[in-house]
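Tutorial, part two.
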Amino acid sequence: MTPIAQTPIALTIAGSDSGGGAGIQADLKVFSALGVYGASVITAITAQNTQAVTAVEGVSLPVIAAQIEAVLSDLNVGAIKIGMLATPEIIDTVADSMKGFDGPIVLDPVMVAKSGDALLQDDAVGALVERLLPRATVLTPNLPEAARLLSTNATDDDDALVEQGQALLALGPYAVLMKGGHASGAICHDHLVSETGVERFSAKRVATKNTHGTGCTLSSSIASGLAKGLDVSAAVAEAHAYLAAAILAADDLTIGSGHGPVHHFHQFWGPNG
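Running the prediction step on this input gives:
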């Protein structure tokens, strides 16, 4: 009898975005679009749309821990993506609850929403660095997040951001993807920094305001690739290409009046369904 192929499974541990463009909702869309079964652990509930975050409430620590235990005790999770954690207590709970998991982890250090609203308490940065950076297979900071993790100033100079990536690498992750979305220039460059060197992924910068959820989308795309068995470089390459196409198709959607989402299902349907 031919053995049944294992279904690739990825788990997202993140906050809920009621507007559907980022967080848990974006992650699950990405998993599905890239052929991966998605499970989820909700750490916080946000009231938000394309314009603002109007309320945030953390899920209780026992319920967060119970969600993680429920998923990991039953599903054969191939990779975990971690997003919004908000507080030191949530970070500790997530770190403790994942102790038995030895698969790849993609850590997106979510700090600020596209609207500018804070999603990570100031006193949580140290806990993130201490408890989760050493567990990360891939850390995916944008330039302001990288600077905050290092208590320094943000930069968009290629040499300086690679140096920041190397400084973050020294804190424990296997690899650091320094995202260039906040930089300037006609080409957007992401730099994958690891012990083996620096690999650059480039795409034409698209003039659109519909970039809500780009960080969540990229990190969950990488987790999808890792769940399917790709190595880090190949997973990042697949994710970079997927996000570039999703941004390019973002203006095909008419969602809200602020920063709309990227088009997670661009390869399946367009403006007319």
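Helices lie at 23-33, 61-72, 88-97, 125-132, 143-150, 158-169, 214-227, 232-248. In part three we will examine how such features are distributed along the chain.
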